Amino acid sequence: MKIIEVSTGEYLVNIGVEFDSTENWSALDYLIEEEQIKSLTFDFENTMYVNSSAFGYTVNISQVLASKGATLKLINLCQKVSMVFKCLGGYELLNIED
Amino acid sequence: MTAKDFINREERSKRSSPVCFVADANTSYNGMMWDQSANGFSAFIKIFTHNVEKASIFNDFLDLDALTKKFLGKKFTISYLDNNNQCFGKLRECTVVRCERSWERDYELFLGCKYTDSLTTSEVSTSFEKEMADVSFDDEKDKQLLKTLQESDPDVIALTFPARHFYVKYIRDMAEELATLAGFDSLSAFQIKLATDEVYTNAFKHGSPRYCQSRIRVSFIVDGSTFFVRIKDEGGCNISRKDIMRNIEKNPGQKSGMAIVDSFMDGWAIETLKAKSTVVSFYKCKDQD
């Protein structure tokens, strides 16, 4: 996972090959809690695997950001990742750009 | 399997003899017996010389999927061949339970066969019964699947892990690789990986009261058409399939990991021995098209 500040308050997160609960998410937690965020984009370009823990985490982030008036967008989901998010109800809850 | 079994196996394989698989009056395949037991045998067979299916061989490459469809589950009469390629000895009927690429030169296929008149007492069946003792399905379709799986003499791979979460990566990757090896397509293998991850994670989170002192047993039962997974923990949470389905339906927006198992697998069950153990079993069958 790599966090890039695109412009002030706008961040791009390159999600790694696997997005799951074995990943250390503390940097992202810190960013969301401490920084003044306007928008966050999760880029799934290299991501081949996600599970329900990662999905739950993403939904939580989305809700925290919404409460701060910020937005979360998910981009570049491959077929398998999008299939998992669809199954778990992500397309109703998250801003996913296919 | 003991060292003695290995010696016997080696001895048996030294006695490889030419055999003939007779499908009907017009179709038969010559081969070489590789190993045999009271319940069945394995053999290499020649495909090119019999010109089995032109569609199965393209540019000298075997289409193993097409050949598997052709041979798996099919009944043959098997006989030994003498030096003049004439049948001799007792003819016995067998069913093909495994079909793999041959690793012996001059042969293209390796078949595992079970005598149809044999009793189910092989090592594999015993381990299958042991693994499946606490697996219980209510649905008739699932019960039938288990029966078919048992009759096919599947491979049973069982591993016990200390309840540590980082093993989940190893277990789910293993599930995916085994499924790919068994001939499942990439998407199905991914779904099996995902379901294994979700159930193992639940076993770790809710079924390991002694943390890494607790044990999680993961079993993969694989035959030519089905991938069956069973995960047993020490939790014994009193939860039924009905409870899980109710929770999934209650939160359609944000579903749990078991929604993945329910959506992507062909069948699943949960069996709880209160405060002692929980076994979650699920399976996926190969697409038949």
What does this structure look like?
The complex is a heterodimer of chains A (98) and B (289). Chain A is of the alpha/beta class. Chain A has one domain (2-97): Transcription Regulator spoIIAA (2-Layer Sandwich). Chain A is built from 4 helices and 7 strands. In chain A, the strands form 2 sheets. A 5-stranded mixed sheet of chain A has the order 1-2-4-6-7, with helices on one face. In chain A, strands 3-5 form a two-stranded parallel sheet. In chain A, strand 1 and strand 2 form a beta hairpin. Chain A starts with a strand and ends with a strand. Chain B is elongated, with a radius of gyration of 22 Å. In chain B, strand 4 (57-58) and strand 5 form a beta hairpin. With 289 residues, chain B is α+β, with helices and mostly antiparallel strands. Chain B contains 8 helices and 13 strands. The relative contact order of chain B is 0.11.
Give me a quick take on this structure.
The complex is a heterodimer of chains A (98) and B (289). In chain A, 40% of the residues lie in helices and 28% in strands.
Shape of chain A: globular
Q: What average pLDDT do the residues of chain A reach?
A: 89
Largest sheet of chain B, order of strands side by side?
1-2-3-8-7-6
Structural class assignment of chain B? alpha+beta
What does the largest sheet of chain B look like?
6 strands, antiparallel, barrel
Radius of gyration of chain B: 22 Å
Any low-confidence stretches of chain B, pLDDT <50, length ≥5?
119-124
Helix content of chain A: 25-40%
The CATH homologous superfamily of the largest domain in chain B is called Histidine kinase-like ATPase, C-terminal domain
- SSE order of chain A, as H and E? EEEHEEHEHHE
Counting helices, strands and paired strands, the structural category of chain A is alpha/beta
Q: Approximately how much beta-strand content do the residues of chain B carry?
A: 25-35%
User: N-to-C terminal Cα separation of chain B, in Å?
Assistant: 37 Å
Shape of chain B: elongated
